[in-house]
Write a structure and sequence with these properties.
- By secondary structure, the chain is α/β, with parallel strands linked by helices.
- Helices cover 45% and strands 16% of the residues.
- It has 2 domains: 3-173 and 360-374, Glycogen Phosphorylase B (Rossmann fold, 3-Layer(aba) Sandwich); 183-357, Glycogen Phosphorylase B (Rossmann fold, 3-Layer(aba) Sandwich).
- It contains 15 helices and 13 strands.
- A 7-stranded parallel β-sheet has the order 3-2-1-4-5-6-7, with helices on both faces. Strands 10-9-8-11-12-13 form a 6-stranded parallel β-sheet, with helices on both faces.
- The longest helix is centred in the first third of the chain and has 18 residues, at 65-82.
- This is Glycosyltransferase.
- Its EC number is 2.4.-.-.
- Keywords: Glycosyltransferase, Transferase.
- One of its GO terms (molecular function) is glycosyltransferase activity.
Length: 383
């Protein structure tokens, strides 16, 4: 009989952590596990897709004080009713509410925290998040497990005070059938976007200070001085012509005819096949999905040295210091100046690396083994 397990996540929007939860649920062996998902906020776009899988989604809608207070009690009722064999937290706030709900339920169900974020010091976090992170660290040693999606995240959270005998890294995974080299789709989309034969450098990232859009645009301006025909595609939530800050930067750097702002898209695999080079200009990351997705499509990458990016990219691209547009531009120019064979060789190396290390099916098997290792854990040391 399938074992009921509960995932408690902060949100079900369009971010990388939410997408990874969806991918896991799509492939989780239902003969072994019967999942349910609780979102602290609403269901968002990912929540609807999870429900389409036949997985129940409960939304606590913690957007008002009375709902924030009530949420742990509602969760406790769910835990008592369904008798889960395992509770898996997903992001800081989800971890804390999962712990509170389990405590209120008087349950001894094994609880594992899930950390999907990078950590670069409390100063970069909002005030309320700082307290939630401190609580995560304080509680971590009492949990049956704590999962991280990058070695960088494990190390930095360990330095911050996270403790536990079962702290593990399971990396993000990628659907190698959805993300693969498809030059014909790339060519069709190039024609649709009227890019012609221009070299294309792309970056997929929501608009956020840590994603380095200004650094990327400064690097683009430098690249254009040497190769004026290059086009730059920016894709992600908030990356549209209505974004006044982006528009001002583009105007200031004289990039109006060089940059296409694509906004949020659902055809990321096809867009990757448009790129000659994929960039990540972030100043903070843990394990960015966009790098693995581009590499799975056979696209060479230039990334800042944040999180696990240097390990992910390896020999399939270039790594540069964060916050250094000149170095970013130099790396982009180096790859653009390679001959066609040189870039194809890098692209093949990128694809082979993802196939060998980050196949989504293999990643989900790691999760299943981890869940089995926790089911039936002794609760003698739980708080």
């Amino acid at each position: 009989m399938s074992k009921p397990i509960l995932f408690v996540t902060t949100t079900l929007g369009t971010g990388g952590a939410e997408q990874m939860l969806l991918k896991i649920l799509q492939r989780l062996d239902r003969r072994q596990f019967a999942p349910m998902v609780v979102s602290l906020l609403d269901g968002g776009t990912v929540g609807r897709r999870i429900e389409e899988l036949g997985v129940p989604v409960v939304c606590l809608r913690m957007d008002r004080w009375h709902r924030i207070v009530a949420a742990p009690f509602v969760l406790a009722q769910l835990i008592r009713r369904h008798r889960f064999v395992l509770i898996q937290g997903w992001m800081y706030h989800g971890n804390v509410v999962a712990w509170a709900g389990r405590w209120l339920a008087g349950s001894k169900t094994p609880l594992s925290f899930g950390i999907r974020q990078s950590f670069y010091g409390l100063a970069r976090e909002r005030f309320n998040t700082r307290w939630v992170m401190r609580m995560n660290a304080w509680l971590s040693g009492r949990m049956q497990g704590c999962l991280f999606n990058s070695r960088f995240s494990l190390k930095t959270h360990g330095d911050f005070g996270f403790r536990g005998h079962n702290m593990r890294v399971i990396p993000n995974g990628f659907d190698l059938d959805a993300y693969m080299p498809r030059p014909e789709r790339g060519a069709a989309l190039r024609a649709e976007l009227e890019l012609g034969g221009a070299p294309v450098v792309g970056m997929v990232a929501r608009f956020h200070p840590m994603k380095g859009h200004h650094d990327f645009l400064q690097a683009a301006a430098i690249v254009r001085r040497t190769l004026p025909q290059v086009k730059f595609l920016l894709v992600g939530t908030g990356v549209t012509g209505r974004n006044r800050q982006l528009a001002a930067w583009i105007e200031e750097l004289d990039l109006n005819n060089a940059v296409l702002l694509m906004g949020e898209r659902t055809d990321i695999a096809d867009l990757n096949n448009v790129f000659d080079i994929a960039c990540l200009a972030s100043r903070a990351e843990a394990f960015p999905n966009v790098m693995g997705e581009a590499m799975a499509c056979g696209i060479p990458c230039v990334s800042t040295d944040v999180g696990d990016c240097a390990d992910i990219v390896g020999v399939a691209g270039r790594i540069v210091p964060p916050g250094d547009p000149a170095s970013l531009a130099a790396a982009v120019l180096e790859l653009l100046n390679l001959d066609r064979q040189g870039r194809q060789d890098l692209g093949r190396a990128a694809r082979c690396s993802v196939v060998a290390r980050f196949d989504m099916q293999g990643v989900v098997r790691q999760y299943e083994r981890y869940f089995h290792s926790l089911v039936g854990c002794s609760d003698s040391d739980q708080g």
